[in-house]
Amino acid sequence: AQSVTQLGSHVSVSEGALVLLRCNYSSSVPPYLFWYVQYPNQGLQLLLKYTSAATLVKGINGFEAEFKKSETSFHLTKPSAHMSDAAEYFCAVKPPGGSYIPTFGRGTSLIVHP
Amino acid sequence: GAGVSQTPSNKVTEKGKYVELRCDPISGHTALYWYRQSLGQGPEFLIYFQGTGAADDSGLPNDRFFAVRPEGSVSTLKIQRTERGDSAVYLCASSLASNTGELFFGEGSRLTVL
Question: How far is residue A4 CA from its own chain's centroid?
């Protein structure tokens, strides 16, 4: 069984401030982990992924995430928020292997104040 | 087109009617997924195709829901005797290979059942 928990349905930051979106996972085997972003009226798009290589993963638009096995976490960060980062962010988990389906969290809405 | 295309983008129907939602994946992508996203929730898995066959349909909520992919490309999600609780955004995603877990999403079909 696999699942993800995203703490906080909404996160509000000021422009230029640090962004931290939390994701904790549960998986019976070492997982693949993903962050997707959904801008208003658009489809989900992949921000970054962890597939058992480097634990610190860098993605698009200055985002990065660190896989911490001891904490079962994969939190998403960005040093300095931009107005254009306002969107819905989803964490997803999938065990390796083609027969497994990615499971998504409930999402966190990032609000950026000027 | 370059991305995953879903039609219609919006569908309003009456309770009890039959609905079809279409997904045209990225050319060459063998894996195709249907998810459902309700307001304030993350994508919820419905069904996964590898080629023409449904490799996993464990997420279909009941026998009113059915999906096909007869030629291994375009897929249609079919909902019979629609109910108000079926109202949601239906997301389609495709992937070059199912074991990567990296999904490319369409913009979704918003279904409203009155």
Answer: 10
